[in-house]
Amino acid sequence: MPKKIREIKAMLTAAGFVARSGKGSHSNWKHPLLPLVITIARKDGEDAPRYLERKVEAALANLKEVEDGQS
């Protein structure tokens, strides 16, 4: 079952990502340690598309590697 957009946003917030608003329902999420920006384009109650879930999972894994390398 796909995650909801609100769940994706909660995961990013817990990992230290910061949200910037975009146009309409878009929001851009950035972490100070990573060069990438994740754009989320749906309302909180909607299902997250699979590509977005994969992108968030990859970003969280990348963040873990970066944080482990700095320790």
From TrEMBL:
Designated name of the protein: Type II toxin-antitoxin system HicA family toxin
Species of provenance: uncultured Synechococcales cyanobacterium
One family name in Pfam for this protein: HicA_toxin
Coiled-coil stretches: none
Signal sequence annotation: none
Keyword Transcription assigned: no
Any one GO molecular-function label of the UniProt entry: endonuclease activity
Keyword field: Endonuclease, Hydrolase, Nuclease, RNA-binding, Stress response, Toxin-antitoxin system
Stated family: Belongs to the HicA mRNA interferase family.
